[in-house]
Amino acid sequence: MTTAPQYSILTDVVCVEVRGRDAGAFLHGQLSQALADLDATQAPLAAWHDAKGRVRALVRVLRLPDRWLLVGPRDGSELLVNKLRMFVLRAEVTLSVANDVAIAAVIDADDAWLTAAGIPRDTEPNRAVEHRGVHLVRVGPSYWQALGDPAALAQLTGSLKAAPPGAAALAEIRLGIPSITTALAERFIAQMLNLDELGAVSFDKGCYPGQEIIARVHNLGGVKRRVRRYGAEGAAAELKTAIVAADGAAVGEVVRSAPNGVGSEVLAVVDHAAAGAALATSTGAQLRALPLPFDVPRD
């Protein structure tokens, strides 16, 4: 059974814009992704960490002719801007929330819609194309994000039906992509969130905050828990809801959750030792393991 493409305006997502002669070098030195040679066709995930390697923010990076855009949750965006400003020092860099850029998701995008819209069907994930004033990023096989003026987004998505609430978050959960809001900032190192598997961490670039710890885990192992995906009974769980084993012991916590029409799906950081056991949320919802697009390493 095929599903018709749908769209959703992502009011909970914003763009932080970074401008100035030194913007590229500044971001390359702060984020976990190699950005020095990034071009306009690339739109990778990248994280900003504290000195202990814990993820402060997770963003998608686009390089435009006049500025850089960091696409991430609205919750925590002002704090991200203010904290990054503290590291600008003498660099020619300005940061602010880009209020002129709206963001929409296209969910279950198929070849017919892409062809009708004039969007290259062979665009790879984490790649961007510009089309009629809109920057489109292929996040997954059938999930896209579109950035641009609200009128241009409306023209692009005008033939599509509105998606139900939470559909975009559900699409990202199925791709294993967490959302680092204020409640989750500085709680997990990159590997716990599978950022290495998501291509959000470069192990070949130079120093950036937290790089030493992240590299040590990469080379020597040591992460005892990682994000996994589960189906759950009932409504979407709150962030940081505990995951418990049959004996009641806490073995993890929810980091993202969204309804799926018959219940909900969650991303949860769970201990490796408990990953194959019967699990539930602390509120009593039974969990069933669901696959991710990649194998979760057991470090």
Question: Which key terms come to mind for this protein?
Answer:
17 strands; Elongation Factor Tu (Ef-tu), domain 3; alpha+beta; 299 residues; six-stranded antiparallel beta sheet; 2 domains; Gyrase A, domain 2; six-stranded mixed beta sheet; 17% helix
Write the layout of secondary structure elements.
Elements: E1 6-9, E2 13-19, H1 23-30, E3 45-49, E4 55-63, E5 68-73, H2 77-85, E6 94-97, E7 102-107, H3 111-117, E8 127-131, E9 134-138, E10 143-148, H4 150-157, E11 161-162, H5 167-174, H6 211-220, E12 225-232, E13 242-245, E14 250-259, E15 264-271, E16 279-281, E17 287-290
Parallel strand pairs: 1-11
Antiparallel strand pairs: 1-7, 2-5, 2-6, 3-4, 4-5, 7-10, 8-9, 9-10, 12-15, 12-17, 13-14, 13-16, 14-15
